[in-house]
Every structure is written in C-alpha cells, then in structure tokens.
Amino acid sequence: MTTQPGFQPSILLVDDEEAILDGLRRQLRKRFAVHTATGGAAALELLESQPVSVVVSDMRMPQMDGATFLARVRERHPDVVRILLTGQADTQSAIAAVNDGQVYRFLTKPCSPIVLADEIAGAVEMNRLVTAEKELLAITLRRTVEALTATLSLAQPAAFARAARVTRTVTETAAAMGLAEPWAVEITAMLAHLGAVTLPPELLHKLNSGERLTDADRAMEARVATVSRDLVAAIPRLEEVAASIGLQRVRFDGAGREAGEPRGEDLPLGARMLRAAADLDAETTRRGSVREAVDVMRADPGAYDPEVLDALIRSLDLHAIGAAPRKIDLRDLEPGMVVFDDIETVDGVLLVGRGTVVSEPLIARLENHLDQDRVHAPVIVRA
C-alpha cells in the first residue's frame, strides 16, 4: 500500500466488549488511526462525523448484530470497506452479511493480530482505489462537460451564458449547503440547457432580454428540459443527472405534477437546486433586480425545497460582498474572469452573454473580431 510517510489510515473497530476493543487498539495503533464503538448505533453516529476507510465489526452484538450494522454502513457510506469478525457458529450469518452488507472479508475468531492487520491494510488499499476512481470519474466528467458547453457557447452565446449563470448559482448554493460532493449537481446544471440548441434565435433573444413570451414560446422552452434529458440519458453513468434534468420543473409541493412524478424530498436534489437557480436567473432577467427576483420566489414557497431556497439566498448574500465589476481592455481578458455584461459586435450581434466564464477559445474568438474592428475593446468583467 502506498501512503505518505507518517500517514495513518483511519479505521473503526466495533464490538460490545470494551476489553476486546482496547486489545485491538493496542495491536493496531502503530499502523492505523483507530476509532472504536461499542455498538452499531454508536458506530453509525461516529461515521457521520469521522472520515473512515475501513470498518471492522464483530458479528454478535446486542440491539444490532454485525450483519445488520454493515448493511447499514453500505447504504449510508458505500465507499467504506467492511470486514466482519465471526465465530465458527456464525457461518450462516456471515453469508448473509456478505450478501446484504457486501463485506470485503469475513474472518473467524480468534484471529491472529498479524492476519487482521494485513487484512485491514488490504481493505485500506481497496478504499483508496475506489475513492481515487470516483475522483477521477468526477474530474473526467466535469472536464468533458466543460469542454462541451464551452464549444456550444461559441455557437449559442445567449443560451449558454444562461447555463453558465445557472451553473454558478447551483455551485454557490451547493457550497452554502455544505455538500461534500457537489460535482453531480454542477454537471446537472451545466447540461440542463443542451436542448436550447433547438430554440430559434428570436426566442433566445426574448429569454436573454426578459421579454414577454407567447404561449408558443413557453411550449418550446418547456421542451428544452426533455430534449436535454434525452441527450444526457445516452451518456453512461449520467442516468441520475438525466433524471434530475427531466424533473427540474416539478414543484416541491407536487402541485400540477404528472402522474408518477415524485415530489418533495423524493425529487432528486439536482432537480430541486436546478429549479431554484433557473427561476432566479429568469426572474432577475425579467425584473432587472436580484432582490425582486428573490421576493417573487419567496412568495411561492411551495415551488422550492426550503433548504435549497435558504441556501441560495445565503449564497447571494456572500456573493454581494465579492469583487466589484471593472472595465478592462478586451486584450487583457484572462481565463476564469466572468463577463458582467453582454459583449456584442458593432452591428449588434451577440458574441458573449453576461455571466459567461472566460476561456482560452473564447478569448481567441473575441480577438479575431477585435482584429477585424467588429467589437469594442472595453469589456466589463468580474474576477
């Protein structure tokens, strides 16, 4: 197992006999950071606050046996690797634990300290590999989605500027909620507007300027979520993201929902966050004021998850004390800056929508227009 010098992987030992826990702690503390609990309930509570790589549980415990406990660990903390210690008479229970809790190993007692330590070390390595794979998947998916949306933003600047604004709101809301792994909801927001490529330019202009929509306009806009969902559903491992996109317009209280559609906390978190962020952007565009937009949303509380709406409002308060917009020369643009106002050509063609995060391809495109004297040099940005 490859670890940094001095690093001790964190493990949790669970047994109802404190004397056994004390003995195991003494045997293992030189190789691992050892936590202990005298029952399943206490162990589950500890896991909510303490990062742990491996759980080692005795089978026979009162109130909650080892098989039941490890099954609950699997449900709540699937990346934690699970080891079960059993007596010879517990073979059938151990088989149940393998099936229900998907334990990494089950070891019979008495178990040699050397064998136990080596098995825990193998479980720690398994946890490291699983965690590394998830992190790589998250980074790969995010970078792929960013490249896709950045490319599409060059073709549909208004639609994908809106996507960028909504994504930023979702990201800031996730931070205010303290989400440990926000990448899924961020990708949901990034991909939710893919279907906007089907909208005619006239409707995109109306959406970007906050103009009143006709019934036909609203019908076309409503289909964007379905188109986006169907596009994303074809991508492996993004099935939950696709489901969130398809349910983004469902109200939290379930009013007006179609038969079979979830409501309340049964709605995917990504869908709940996406609705709030998208409505904030639409109302701000329509009214020209974030404060008025929030007041409108507060007046219809059944539409939103209260926890999500509260976090969104807190994130806006944090955002308000950020860096003020500033005017710079177009050639001084740098990746990561946020375009504060629309950038148009001298004849009124939209090149970059407000809220777009500056990228290298975007800078190259603007510089080409600048070289042809088709765009004004000063632009307004936010760090």
Automatic annotation (TrEMBL):
TM segment ranges: none
Entries under SUPFAM superfamilies matching the protein: CheY-like
InterPro entries referenced in this protein's UniProt entry, alphabetically: CheY-like_superfamily, Cyclic_di-GMP/3'3'-cGAMP_PDE, Sig_transdc_resp-reg_receiver
Statement: the UniProt record of this protein carries the keyword Phosphoprotein: yes
GO BP terms, alphabetized: phosphorelay signal transduction system
SMART domains hit by this protein: REC (SM00448)
Domain Response regulatory residues, every copy: 10-124
Listed name of the protein: Response regulator
